[in-house]
Model the fold of this input.
Amino acid sequence: MAVAAQALSGSGLLLAAAALALLAVAIGTDSWYETDARRHRERCRGFGHKRSDPPGSMSAPSSHLPLRARPPRALLPGRPPAPAPAAAAAALDSHCGRRFNSTVSGLWRRCHRAGYEPDSEELIRKGVIQRCTAVKYHYTSSSLPRNLPVNITNTIRQDEWHALHLRRMTAGFIGMAVSIILFGWIIGVLGCCKQQELMQYVAGLLFLMGGTCCIISLCTCVAGINFELSRYPRYVYGLPEDISHGYGWSMFCAWGGLGLTLLAGFLCTLAPSLNTSRASVQKPRQENGAV
Done:
């Protein structure tokens, strides 16, 4: 039984070390969320529309770099709606008025995807634009779109604060998770070296606590991305349908680290119970009347 308990504790510590490595990779890389705008740019190029924004600008929904576009034309009263082909062409013209680029986003930076857009790569080589821009964790009014009605501007300002809180929670809780897991791993290693069951149990509880913080961080990150995609007004923050977007491998590394952390916590809290059950079985049972 003691060998089994040691094996469980050792396995839990190895899983916790692997979880720390995966979380460190996720935190240090920028592939949490990816967009691919090549098909959209091909359609706009075939449509023959000239973009009004400077080349190289990363116009994808983000809390620190919002989209800027002209509002769609409202239908005049008493005039029949445009036919379907004309409406589709107007929608395409509205989206092509902005420049969308293929990007990857992480906790700290947002970058152009290498090799996806030759014109952007040329500008990056010339030093006209930067490949990556920093994600802002402080509020700034310079990110607000201009020339909008007051009520829409106030709504955007409130949404900016909400998105900022979600980003801060994502970064803060995943930092707490890594710190707690690292502390628990140190406690677990000391418990294995000194044969202290209580320290191993505490390490398991710390792993479970770190996993809880990681769950909060990842759920907040997903909520923040969904919030960005559904922000009002849609013609400023929406994505065209022909732009593919989704989670990157950094996000999956974080989810993998979460799973390993919870499994490590389960193993480390289970290991001391095996020694406890063994001690209770080996304890001699006193006979009635025996001293």
